[in-house]
Amino acid sequence: MPTLHGHPLSPYVRKVRIALAEKAIEAESNPVVHFALPEGFEKLHPLRKIPVWTTDAGEHIPDSSVIIAYLDKVQPSPRLIPEDSVLFARALFLEEFADSAFSMGIAQIFLEQFAAPLFMNRPTDQAVVDKALHKTLPPLFAHLDQTIGSRPFMVGDAFSIADIAIASPLNNLRHTGIPIDATAYPNLRRYADQIIARPSMAGIFTAEVAEYGGESPEAAAKKSA
Ligand SMILES: N[C@@H](CCC(=O)N[C@@H](CS)C(=O)NCC(=O)O)C(=O)O
Question: Residue 79: inside a domain, yes or no?
């Protein structure tokens, strides 16, 4: 069986897990964390990053975007990267947007609010959370809010790599219990609630909550009520 190397809470690893769930592909999980990779991991990924996909034939394929493009080639159904040239370009740009600034902004909140108390035994640095929430993320949320409008999917009329790439870091935001502001970004909030309820993602999120004790905004709201 192929192996997916990388911890499930990494947004890049989760991208691949969602793609696998969509395509019903089974794989072993090797949940290594990026800050404690085993010696020799550079043989799998020269930059020592996660995720890496190891095929049955022992070929190591690094990088979430490359892995999903590969999976789309070896098992095209359901297709995650649109065939139409313009939709292809839009989807790949949104993936790049999500993998870079958007993931980084959410990672700052996730690390401080969720990972610091849980894994690093230190309190949250609220200034870092506030900066990400009030400076870094608003223009990115605004772009996504405008892009999605009232449609169900980020690109065209089908679920794609763009939805996977955006929903995966949104799942990390969800773990912190901080909701997307429904007044400022009503389209994005509706989209996030809908896309994360998709079976391929809901199963992954529920498993993560069960294992790592994150919580949904709904649970956080109930607690503070
Ligand atoms: N573009 C890469 C990004 C992968 C990445 O940055 N993964 C993080 C973990 S979330 C990592 O391994 N970081 C270790 C490092 O940058 O040294 C992908 O999509 O796979």
Answer: no
Which residues line the pocket of ligand 1, CB cutoff 6 A?
A: 10, 12, 34, 48-51, 63-65, 99
First-residue to last-residue Cα distance in the chain: 46
Taking the whole predicted model, whether its pTM rises above 0.90 is answered as yes
Q: Cβ distance 60 to 53 under 8 Å?
A: yes
Does one domain contain both 68 and 104? Answer: no
Instruction: Give the Cα separation of 114 and 29 in Å (integer).
Output: 23
For residues 214 and 221, which has the higher predicted lDDT (pLDDT)? 214
pLDDT at residue 22 in the model: 97
Expressed as residue numbers, the domain containing 217 is 85-224
In a domain, 102, yes or no: yes
How confident is the model over 49-69, as a mean pLDDT? 98
Query: What is the pLDDT averaged over residues 99-114?
Result: 96
Using the mean position of ligand 1's atoms as its centre, give its distance from the Cα of residue 62 in Å. Answer: 10
Clarify whether residues 24 and 91 are in a common domain.
no
Average pLDDT over residues 103-127: 93
| CA of 67, closest atom in ligand 1 | 20
If one counts the domains in the chain, the total is 2
Two structure tokens written together for 22: 């969509």
Q: Which atom of ligand 1 is nearest to the CA of 62?
A: 20
